[in-house]
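Self-study notes.
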Amino acid sequence: MYLTAKQQVKHLSKDDYHSIRELCHAAKNLTNEAIYNVRQYYFTEGKFLKYEKNYALLKNSSNYRTLNSNMAQQILKEVDGSFKSFFGLLRLAKKGKYAFQDCKLPHYLPKDGYTTLVIGFVRLNGNKLILPFSNSFKKTHKPVEITIPPILLDKKVNEIRIIPL
């Protein structure tokens, strides 16, 4: 059985809040860069740009370098999944099992927006999660500690999502 626990974190300092906000904004920028690459490849080649090639294009991006590599790869995988869904719908539409007008390319996220941070490899220190930072982000920001709910203390945590409000 999978357990999902939601927790609204209210005890963050101003610096911690700004660090998380900056990471969520970088995640949104990376999402838009990944979407741009796949869309442009589709418009020019008429084919799907796979995760591996998109990763090779974006691994030197400033937004990729701001995020921890685990978080950045999770974002690229989410973009890859949304485009796989789009191309799956196109295949169904060509077979006549789905309407072409309902097949929509994934859209860009708002310019001033934020997106979810996905921590796929969770390392807990007791009842605290120390938010993983990239080496470049560590140089300018202090670590952010988030207390996890007591219900999760004896459980194996597979993924943590930080959803910006």
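Second protein, same conventions, sequence then structure:
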Amino acid sequence: MDFEPTAIPDVVLIRPKVFGDARGYFLESWEARKFTAGGIGARFVQDNHSHSGPYTLRGLHYQIEQPQGKLVRVVTGTVYDVAVDIRRTSRTFGRWVGVVLSEENHHVLWVPPGFAHGYLVLSDSADVLYKVTDFWAPQHERAIRWDDPDIAVKWPLPAGTQPVLSAKDAAAVRFRDAEVYP
């Protein structure tokens, strides 16, 4: 596995070794010893699976207490995955990084605690699997607007296309009004 820091070094793109032949392929998407050696010693407590249709945008989500680190990968389809640093004391506070995760590239993204996370489905559908480092706590769940002008994520939406949002995401707060981490 190759561990590649992104423009925000705490967010890491993992490129697993893929072994393929006429039957298909095999890869390790997570292996504790390799991740620890790569600087990610997270303990995961839950696996989640999300299935979404085209141009569904989920995010930008986080838990203000019981923050979750997320290890994200796509098993079918393609998504544009985004992490926003919302740690007030960080040098990269308010900055974002985005990567394409797909069934073709097999990449995995490590989004550590202290970040808001979201993704946009770029294919007809997508299945996203992610491990988390803490349990879901709905009372601590928060969301920041996907189109917040202060963050200015460059989502790859075709001109004139609006994303499919949940009611919660449509009512999310602006970044300047959001609860953030110290």
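Instructor comment on the second fold: The CA atoms of residues 11 and 111 lie 5 Å apart.
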